[in-house]
Amino acid sequence: MKWHELFHSDKEPTFEEIADYVGTVKELWLSLISYFETAYKAKPKLMYSGCSGMPGWNIKFQKSGQAFGTWYPHEDAFKVMIIVNYKLNAEMERILPELSEYTADLYRKAGDYMKTGKWMMLHADSAQIFEDYKKIVAVKLPPKY
To answer: pTM to 2 decimals?
Structure first.
């Protein structure tokens, strides 16, 4: 069953239910939450979206006005929409060789987001993609802790 069918707007999921739903990436998911809580002192926020593209409950992390992306639970994965400001393009180009080919290619082909930056939707289903995501967030806002 799809995520938005399991948890309607009036039924907020617990973090445990989300972790169970992402299945095979559950431990990576939990370690990523722990990483953001430790490295950025940021707490996850549950939000509900009626957006037709990705409806349902999602998770957002934010620190110092910087959004780390929106996480959408999927079976055995999660998707994260992240926007990287054009001002950070030189730094992103510098780290592309450190990223998986999938993520680097996704960034190169990323679409324009309201003339402010590139937006991409990472399909996080492996440890490598989780690490790529942390590197991209560090370009936006280096961890301080």
So the answer is: 0.87
